[in-house]
Write a structure and sequence with these properties.
The protein has ten helices and 16 strands. The protein is α+β, with helices and mostly antiparallel strands and about 400 residues long. The protein has three domains: about 150 residues, Immunoglobulin-like (Sandwich); about 100 residues, Orthogonal Bundle (Neutral Protease, domain 2); about 100 residues, no CATH class. Strands 1, 2, 3, 4, 5, 8 and 9 form a seven-stranded mixed sheet that branches. The chain is globular, with a radius of gyration of 22 Å. The chain binds zinc ion. The site of zinc ion has 6 residues, from helix 5 and helix 6.
Amino acid sequence: MYALFNFRSLFFIFLCLATMPAMAEKLAALPVSMQLSRLSATTWQADYVFSEAVTALNFEKRGDYRSTAWKVLTPGVRYQTNEQMDSYVSSQPLKKISVEIAAYDQYLPKNYAPNNRFTDGGAALYMGFFEGAVQQAGIARDMVLTVSYQGMPGETVIAPPRFADASKSLNAYAYFGPQKPMDAGSAKIIIDPATPAWLTGLILETGTKMSNYYSATYQRPLARELVLMISVAEFESPGASMKGGATNGQITYRLSGKSLVKDVPPLRSMVKRLVSHEMAHIWQENVSQGGIGENPAWIHEGGAEAMAMDALENTGLWSKDEVDAYKNKASQTCDKLKDGPPAYERDYACGLQNFMNMSLAAPVVWRALISETDRTGEYYSEAMVNRLAKQVAGK
Ligand SMILES: [Zn+2]
């Protein structure tokens, strides 16, 4: 998981505030359905239908995404925004609101990219940004959103993976485009045709090895189909950037920078680590309930680092020297950052350090954690890590 966690906690706090009046009134979340249809290469339409009339549709603000890319279509509904919220407001209660959404190529700081566009016209939309809350006569109310998808004629549509928890199902991308997904073991793969061949090969090979290793080591075949998407933003800028994100049951990579075109050893190492790390999150979430919640990011990020180091070493994708060098560097990074302000690197580096300090193999700790969250529905937490680390160390 990338560029996500601090923001997720913020989101949670915000949602709690936003829903307090609703909780006081004891209103259950309102069932809402939405159809997302692709109208053209660069436009979509979202048609929200509310099971009871509402006077506003509210979303946590996501930078300028809605102010620049969303346009309300329903007459009498106006867009309002403030520091925290984007709202679509009506003076009359109504049961439908439609919005047109344009392609958006920017990144949002510390957040999922709203769109990952492919060079062949395909596009993936982050569905978490379609979920919000409603207002009824001034009272805020959560929503339970169910989405259906409609592509242009003949195009492939891949909906986000389904989870028992409806809102979790939306924390992933929906793909619209011309590609027919390739099958690779337990994964479905969509690859931008502009991806350099060496990189496609390496991602597929590493992904297959990792998925075999994690299945065997964590004794759990994947509960839901894994979808892996690789999109190319551009190969003109200097350097190399490969942004990866594991959202529930899905991995997306967005590539940019001209250095990615050439196959060189340090890039190969970086790609193997990133694939192993993202794949580890898939197994952390390979549960019927629980998994990654709102708890400190060091648990799942440091955990994914520890799982990745174990997997890279045991599959021989990295030498022991490479693994040791990486761990040493992480320790140094952690020492530098541990007393400073919160930072993503700290969650990774100090998280890895915390798991290394347990002196237990990553699979021993994580097998226990994954079973526990699946059995109890409790999200991963520091208390759970401490409790289970003690338990398995005692065995
Ligand atoms: Zn991660």
